[in-house]
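haha ok so turns out i had the wrong file open the whole time. this is the CORRECT one, sorry everyone. sequence first:
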Amino acid sequence: MTFNKKIFPYYLPRFLARALVFIFAGHEFACGSSRETAPQALAYAGARVIIAKSFARIFFRNCINMGLLLPIIYEHSYDETIIGEEVTVNVALQYFIVHSKHYEFCDFCPLTAIIKAGGLTNYNKQRLGGEL
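then structure:
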C-alpha cells in the first residue's frame, strides 16, 4: 500500500487515481515546516508541484535543494473546480495550464540550474566534476 492510499482516501478519493499531484495553496504554504521531512512527506505522497501565493522561506529552499518538489509562486484565485483537474507545467518556458488557461510564473533565476540538476547535491556534483 502506498503512502497516499493511507492518508488521502477520505479527504480526496480522486487522489488515489493520480500518478502526479499538483497542490494549489494560499499564502505562506508550509509555514512552520522547518525540517526536510515536510517536502519529503509530500513527495512520497505523490506531490510533484506546489503552486502557492507564497511559501515559508525554509520550506521553499528545502524543496529546491532536495529536488523533490517544484514550488511555484503565483498569485492565483483557485476554487473547487481545479481539484482533480489536469495541470501541465513547463518550467523552461515558465507557464502552467489548467482548464486550457495559460498562466505565466516568474523565473527561478539562479535556482533554475539547481532545479534542472534535481537538487543541490546533484548540482554541486555536476559543478565539481562528480566529486563532493
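The mean pLDDT is 78.
again sry for the mixup
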